[in-house]
Write a structure and sequence with these properties.
2 copies of one chain form a homodimer. By secondary structure, the first copy, chain A, is α/β, with parallel strands linked by helices. Chain A has 3 domains: 13-87, Orthogonal Bundle (Arc Repressor Mutant, subunit A), CATH 1.10.10; 92-124 and 131-206 and 395-399, ATPase, nucleotide binding domain (Nucleotidyltransferase, domain 5, 2-Layer Sandwich), CATH 3.30.420; 219-379, ATPase, nucleotide binding domain (Nucleotidyltransferase, domain 5, 2-Layer Sandwich), CATH 3.30.420. In chain A, 40% of the residues lie in helices and 17% in strands. Chain A has helices spanning 13-28, 36-43, 47-60, 134-152, 182-187, 192-198, 207-217, 272-285, 302-310, 314-338, 354-367, 384-400, 406-413; strands at residues 34-35, 63-66, 83-86, 92-98, 102-109, 114-121, 159-166, 202-206, 227-232, 236-242, 245-246, 342-346, 374-377. In chain A, the strands form 3 sheets. In chain A, strands 6-5-4-7-8 form a 5-stranded mixed β-sheet. In chain A, strands 11-10-9-12-13 form a 5-stranded mixed β-sheet, with helices on both faces. The interface between A and B is large, with 54 and 55 residues. Chain A binds a DNA duplex (30 and 30 nucleotides) through residues 1-3, 8-17, 20, 35-37, 45-49, 51-52, 69-70, 76-82.
DNA sequence: GGGCCTAAATATAGACGTTGAATTAAGAGA
DNA sequence: TCTCTTAATTCAACGTCTATATTTAGGCCC
């Protein structure tokens, strides 16, 4: 009965082994192929140990062994080293941006490379949450996922984890509050239970949080730095990354911006699109002229404003200036309180906003002394949330990689710390 | 040369041993005496192992062995168990609240029990930072510390760690920005270097952060919960505890409230005392009457306002109401953005503010739906910062307890994670 | 093609800490 | 004094890592 029962072994050499396995896995995870010598250098372990660990990970399917050693360029003397490569295709993940007007799903490998897409879009323009029941929405999400799987040529069984991003706060159990805001419950009709139907590990997460994860992965910010991903959809939402770690609160309310109602010159958590439209209509109603007048007071949209501003239309420029002030004030609140290094403006409209951000930077400096703060536009455009969902799903797989191993249960029991 | 060089041993059984030692130490740290059986239950280790670890910790001086086993009450059959008790007197720490008007130092044991005090106070009323040079201030701090040591009957050599709380942001190196705010540089004239003169481990920390640590230790909040300690001195400062951990940013700006200038109905980071005075003088200047009029427009102080409000004076009550609104708005910003469980109002005046907080609670509910939020007054009164400094110093000792051991260097090298 | 060189992989012995079971110890009650 | 119960101690077995010695794999040179 020695070394078998899974309750025991708390402090035994076996545990050491698992810790080292995890360490090596972490090192190679989604990295370039490595030789044992490199791992020896990085982990401080002995050659014999490292090789044993690599063999173990290879047996488990996480590592592939590349016999063709002696990488190009590296000068070569002595016996060529084996090279171990992380197997990005060990399993696949699904990331979904389940927005209000559009659900887009993608299948990706463990390196985050998309290999399949699926999409469901609803009528553009105004969205009436009451027109879509929870059941319908769940079906739409599944349809998008299935389309993505189909596109990738994979099946349910290849899926290691699913992450769904929704425009609502999400608590630790994956649920969103109902009743407070009719959009919230509608956005997340118990989507966590959706994975169970297919036997998937399923996580629901707030969209701004996922956008933040995407930026984190994108290397926009240095490790250990702090930033906010400000997602400008219908309403603003922020994903807060503090010291390299996404802040997730049990109730899911971190980064909610309802409090902007109390901020001078901001007045509401409505996002840039809303205000661009609002200011344009207001201006046209009171006799404003210029490029925007072409669209008519009731038809003018946010994109028209940003387009006209790029072309130098004075009215549009004035509106952009007012939006920049709003944005700057939001940045002051976030960066001032949390001492951020960076604020990334994200969302579908983001790519069109470089001028706005530039103006916001200047205004920010008037309100707060924080010359280190970088206000930038996300490079990810409309894909930010989905990209973040994929990254989050990969993390899920990573975290569970050695599950069934003993460490995991020890971590769960708090025997080991983090 | 086996098992000796300190570079090696990365993944060996020796490391396992150190991890387990740390685990047992964490369990007993500042807790009640325990028997080996209890540790066996809590750690999952074997009796033989636990006893070996306890013996080791006892040899190192962290644990004392209480032969008088068979604790009162516990019914007793069989051989009485040895009991091991954490030695709170293994060494002592110094916590200092280096405020603008008052420097108070205390010597405490590792249980946080104060056993010596020292204090330096400057003229009450207006404080002119230019009147005190950095050198003078350093001397004052040392004087307070020496007085506390003297009071405790201890000497320099008994000191395991020193923590100094200052009313200024403090960066990772213990320094405060100079130039931006004349009070900041003045409050922290390179106090980190002060420990070196006496051979002490010395840490400088922001006062609100220390107040937050004090609340954390005080058990006011459950482990893993999130709260802000709102320190109301000359200006507001907040210590942010997120998921049970104090947020410390490299530049030290977390919890700085300069951004309150942009919050509607708050307008500045000046704290309650300032505004109480301000409103009272304003009211008296425009002919206000009542209890406050006795003091005269130029003499009336914040305490007068709070006192009069307790006695039901209408003018004072009106002022308190306005302060409560301000406080409520600040709470909305903090709790709304970070999804806090609790906000603790701290500082010397806090004990007098229970009425104000009650009013603030009601107003808060008008601004934000967050019925779970607890707005309370600290029980620690004027001692919060010093208490937090002591706690922080104890943590320093705890973190370094097994230093010289191999784990520490491994943690430093990133071989182990947190 | 055979020797030489280098660096990687493998094999083997040694050390250490943990487990788990057997043994001894310390009190309380009959 | 004997028995009962629970703790502490002892010891062999085991697993993992380290450290050293040995083998292997490929260039390079003659």
């Amino acid at each position: 009965m020695r070394g078998s029962a899974e309750g025991g072994q708390v402090g035994s050499p076996q545990l050491m082994r698992r810790l080292n396995t995890q360490r090596v896995l972490d090192h190679v995870w989604n990295g370039e192929p490595v030789t044992a010598s490199e791992l020896i250098r990085e982990t401080g372990l002995t050659r014999a140990t490292v090789l044993a660990l690599c063999r173990e990970l290879a047996d488990q399917g996480w590592l592939g062994v590349l016999e063709n050693s002696r990488r190009a360029g590296a000068y070569t003397k002595g016996r060529p080293a084996l090279r171990y490569a992380f197997r990005r295709d060990a399993c696949h993940v699904i990331g979904v941006d389940a927005g209000q007007h559009r659900i887009s799903a993608s299948v990706a490998d463990l390196g985050g490379r998309e290999i399949g897409q699926g999409e469901r879009a609803f009528e553009p323009g105004r969205f009436d949450p009451d027109r879509q029941s929870g059941q319908e929405r769940r079906k739409e999400v599944l349809t998008a996922i299935d389309a993505a799987l189909d596109d990738a040529g994979l099946t349910s069984g290849d899926v290691g984890a699913v992450v769904l991003g929704v425009p609502a706060p999400v608590d630790a159990e994956g649920r969103s509050p109902v009743g407070l805001n009719r959009f919230w419950g509608q956005s997340n009709p118990d989507l966590v239970t959706l994975g169970a139907e297919r036997g998937w590990e399923c996580v629901v997460e707030n969209d701004a949080n996922l956008a933040a994860l995407a930026e984190l992965d994108n290397g926009a910010a240095e490790a250990d730095s702090s930033f906010a991903a400000l997602l400008s959809g219908e309403r603003f939402g922020a994903g807060l990354v503090l010291r390299g770690e996404l802040l997730r609160q049990p109730r899911g309310g971190a980064g909610e911006l309802g409090m902007l109602e109390l901020v001078d010159g901001v007045e509401s958590p409505e996002a840039l699109g809303h205000w661009a439209r609002h200011h344009a209509r207001e201006a046209l109603a009171s006799g404003g002229t210029g490029a925007l007048a072409e669209y008519g007071q009731d038809e003018v949209q946010a994109e028209h404003v940003f387009g006209a501003a790029r072309d130098g239309d004075p009215l549009a420029l004035d509106i952009v200036d007012r939006l920049a002030d709003r944005l700057a004030r939001i940045c002051v609140v976030l960066a001032g309180l949390l001492d951020l290094d960076r604020i990334v403006l994200s969302g579908a409209v983001a790519p069109a906003l470089s001028g706005l951000v530039e103006a916001a930077r200047a205004k920010f400096a008037e309100y707060l002394y924080a010359p280190w703060l970088d206000i930038t536009v996300s490079e990810l455009g409309a894909d930010a949330v989905r990209t973040g969902a994929v990254r989050c799903a990969v993390e899920q797989v990573h975290a569970r990689a050695l599950q069934g191993d003993h460490v995991s249960s020890l971590l769960a029991r708090g025997v080991l710390r983090a």
